[in-house]
Automatic annotation (TrEMBL):
This is Endonuclease/exonuclease/phosphatase domain-containing protein. It holds the Pfam family Exo_endo_phos. InterPro entries: Endo/exonu/phosph_ase_sf (IPR036691), Endo/exonuclease/phosphatase (IPR005135). GO terms for molecular function: catalytic activity. Signal peptide: none annotated. Residues 3-202 form the Endonuclease/exonuclease/phosphatase domain.
Length: 224
């Protein structure tokens, strides 16, 4: 898929891979830079690959997200938060509170992208049971407190699909890109597209950046 799309930056979650394996993958995909967080035991792991068209300064990281300041060749600067929402709701709620509490400069262009493990409305889930209202409320509060808006998704309504259970598949839109107004003005024609993924229950997210300076480069997010 990378050979076909040729993204300038890729974010991977749940890699379950040690640094040695990540470096082999970086070489295979022909990326120039990498930043990885190794898994704990048999789960977790985050990884960024990028080429030198971007200057990526990672300044904070933990098991569930990476914060980086990104500068492109035209001098456009923004903060990117690469997110993996903790599968446990209690820990995920604390994650949203932590990110909000440390978001000191909300007027700087900001992008939040990844697997949030949350939905913004009940319409973003199709399954036997609705999403608990408390979880939807907490996530919406996180979005509102950080003055974020949801980028429209092209290519499909949902991004995650469960294994069949009693002949029924649960579908959710838990992968997304959230941006503030300043970022939206910088990349007013940016587009977010979902594509089916191979050997994953998540779809790929492809974010194409089209700034006011007409530079066009793509981000790619994949959950294993």
């Amino acid at each position: 898929m990378c050979k076909q799309i040729k993204p300038a930056l890729v974010f991977l979650i749940e890699t379950r891979a040690k640094e040695k394996s990540i470096m082999k993958l970086k070489k295979k995909l022909h990326f120039e830079n990498t930043f990885c967080i190794e898994p704990r035991g048999l789960s977790g792991g985050l990884c960024l690959f990028w080429n030198n068209i971007y200057n990526v300064d990672v300044y904070f990281w933990c098991d569930s997200y990476i914060k980086a300041r990104i500068v492109d060749k035209k001098g456009n600067t923004w903060v990117c938060n690469f997110i993996y929402g903790n599968p446990n709701f209690g820990r995920r709620r604390e994650q949203w509170k932590e990110i909000t509490a440390t978001n000191y400069n909300k007027v700087e262009p900001q992008l939040f992208i990844g697997d949030f493990n949350d939905v913004l409305t009940q319409e973003e889930k199709m399954g036997l049971h609705p999403k608990p209202h408390s979880q939807v409320r907490e996530f919406r509060s996180f979005v509102d407190f950080n003055f974020l808006m949801d980028l429209d998704l092209k290519g499909g309504r949902f991004t995650w699909f469960s294994n069949p259970r009693n002949g029924f598949v649960t579908r959710e839109r838990i992968d997304r890109a959230l941006v503030n107004w300043e970022w939206r003005l910088l990349f007013e024609n940016a587009s977010l597209t979902t594509m089916p993924a191979i050997s994953s229950d998540h779809s790929l997210l492809i974010l194409e950046l089209k700034s006011v300076y007409r530079i066009r480069k793509s981000f790619k997010f994949e959950a294993f």
